[in-house]
């Protein structure tokens, strides 16, 4: 929520300047995000009612910033009487506007970055209707995963829920790109196969592709650097003692969840998805996009059952051909990369008799990677998570926790979050990248785009393109980024960052 709120805040501050709005609504979210930097908010060591208050402040601030963004979109692209709709729950494929719309509508995409980007836009849809995006060669309609449909509290707005993907290319920096969605009555037929991915689009092969075994399980990846073995597993550590402050697993090895069914493939000329159901409460969708040089892994965990034991749920990515020599790298606040060695501290002797797993866990703000002399495998996160590498060529990340005991460090309540009367469901994304060990350009670019994501809005009325947009449609050098653009009294503050 803090990462999402900051994403909205940066766009809000930018558009307050670009549209010359002089709105004070931006300050509500600025204050809420500032309060959210408290160590108990960032690390999750507050009591539940305190956490609820952090979320309340952020929610109010986000709503006020949406008003600023709406005013800017209207001023720069539409007439004053146009109604603009935002869908903050797109991450769980929930949007009443797009799901119920039976007539043409418009999607406005705002790019808050200082560079041109390609962006995979998605919105919920009615599977009984046909959708065509003007000016887009490739789009696809997939059914919504059953796991997402069953998230507690999620609202359904159509009887045959689907999701539309399309690729928005070359969106100018700090600018809008607008697409018309034509809605028809003839539904599109999609073919879903369980077989090896050998798809091409417009005679252009996927930049990366997955290698599957005869049962449809992922066993490798084919990249511009070559073919590499790859496995993706989910599991959990059992904790007898644990809580907001303490991760103390009972065993050194996690319990690995075995897939409950054959992976299901949704296949098109543009995007291919492989959905893996590890249990009835843990799953992952692995996406291959023919525009991207990375894998997108959308994971979903919860409600975690705790009738037997508390669980610390993890995901493992392993490329056994990478000989990482028991070393790995973690980011420092999303910028510098720190080398870590298993069971080692540079400044004091480590007691190797205590906590063999948790002593090797580090905070991951943005990226964790393993490498050898030739290739690096990196995983980028969409939120701060704990991570480690306990085996050569392996990356492990903590996804979700639900415990029955207290750790005794002052919180006074077990880590047992609930929503809608059930255990909390978490959904998020990882991005898996293979690149030469001598370069981090792809990782840096992707981390920036993950942190400052594009913002979508929807409307029924045709936009009027601005005659004189405040920003010239040029881009900064690739390694220079506008960290923030905001009003300050009678002036404007622009902060530049040389980030690689």
From TrEMBL:
**Taxonomic superkingdom:** Eukaryota
A single GO BP term for this record reads: mannose metabolic process
**Which PANTHER family does the entry mention?**
ALPHA-MANNOSIDASE, LYSOSOMAL ALPHA-MANNOSIDASE
EC number of the protein: 3.2.1.24
Q: What is this protein called?
A: MAN2B1
Question: Pfam families recorded for this chain?
Answer: Alpha-mann_mid, Glyco_hydro_38C
The Glycoside hydrolase family 38 central domain covers 1-58
Q: What GO MF terms are annotated?
A: alpha-mannosidase activity; carbohydrate binding; metal ion binding
Asked if the keyword Disulfide bond belongs to this entry, the reply reads yes
EC class name: hydrolase
Identify the keywords attached in UniProt to this record, alphabetized.
Disulfide bond, Glycosidase, Hydrolase, Metal-binding
CC per GO annotation: lysosome
Keyword Repeat among record annotations: no
Q: InterPro entries, from UniProt?
A: Gal_mutarotase_sf_dom (IPR011013), Glyco_hydro_38_C (IPR011682), Glyco_hydro_38_cen (IPR015341), Glyco_hydro_38_cen_sf (IPR037094), Glyco_hydro_57/38_cen_sf (IPR028995), Glyco_hydro_b (IPR013780), Glycosyl_Hydrlase_38 (IPR050843)
